[in-house]
Amino acid sequence: MLRALLIDDEPNARADLRELLAAHATDVEIIAEAETMDEAEAVLARPDYDIVFLDVQLRGGTGFDLAPRIRPKARIVFVTAHDRYAVRAFEVNALDYLLKPIAPERLAESVTRSVAAFANASRRETDEREDEAYPSPLQPNDIIYLRTGTNGRFVPLLHISAIDAEQNYSAAHFADGTRLLVRRTLKSWEDFLPETHFMRVHRTAIVNLQRITRYERDREEHTLLFVQGVSEPVAATRKLWPDLQARLEQLRRGV
Fold first, then answer.
1. Who wins on pLDDT, 152 or 100?
2. Beta-bridge partners for 215
3. Rounded CA gap, 174 and 157, in Å?
4. Which of 112, 2, 89 is nearest to 49 (CA)?
5. Sheet with 96-99, side-by-side order of all strands
6. Which distant-in-sequence residues (6+ apart) come within 8 Å of 185 by Cβ?
């Protein structure tokens, strides 16, 4: 069971979150709450919490000001009424963020993700694995957390243009030309990515079908896919071409 702190300067907001978390009493136990910056600093000094539900806007400061005081092994779930703060949240080692008013199903997803993340962390302590598990197949509009070594960031799923295998790791390529190396296998990606938008086109590559700008058929056993943000064309196995072509057409027609 995860031991949680609630930090929010609005009593009603804490009450709402407390009520929603009651539905997950087998997974999350609230051990302390804080309303002011001073109270928050006091509860964050505790050694016994696993996760912090942290409001962004607080009287006298922000949740981002408090983030450095959170103990290293604890995870942060930011709570905010404004999605513009998500950009800042990307820069903080946070697990998730929730928009007020919090939808029960969105909180359920966050709790499941948190439990999975801690289970993975425990496993990594023994086998040094660093794959992050997603609780259910992802949706195209999801924002996911990618861990890179000891850091990580949130990214909109559809900003990923392609993913290629690099031994026990995979490289996620983004539309802006950047890339992140994460400890996750292509099989793991394939299990959770939405089939409507992503396809494994080769044993070493997955592509975002929306990011394909053009393709060329070569004389070998491949079709060369030119993908936004990826410097080199991605080779697609020729036997997959009929399925790839059909899925591109479905996506184009919005089926």
1. 100
2. 225
3. 10
4. 2
5. 28-34, 2-7, 51-55, 75-80, 96-99
6. 131, 165, 168, 170
Give the pair of three-digit tokens for residue 2. 């995860």
This prediction has a pTM of: 0.53
Where in the chain is CATH 2.40.50.1020?
148-253
* pLDDT tens digits along 158-174: 999 999 998 778 999 99
Do you know the residue count of the chain?
255
Of the options 2.60.40.10, 3.10.580.10, 3.40.50.2300, 2.40.50.1020, the CATH number for the domain spanning 148-253: 2.40.50.1020
Strand 179-182 and strand 169-174: pairing? antiparallel
Comparing 183 with 89, which gets the higher pLDDT?
A: 183
Q: What's the pLDDT tens digit per position in 31-67?
A: 999 999 999 999 999 999 999 999 998 988 988 889 8
Give the CATH class of 2-127. Answer: alpha beta
Range(s) of the chain covered by CATH 3.40.50.2300: 2-127
Beta carbons within 8 Å of 14's beta carbon, 6+ residues apart: 6, 8, 33, 35
Both tokens of 139, joined, read 């949706």
Mean pLDDT computed over 203-215? 93
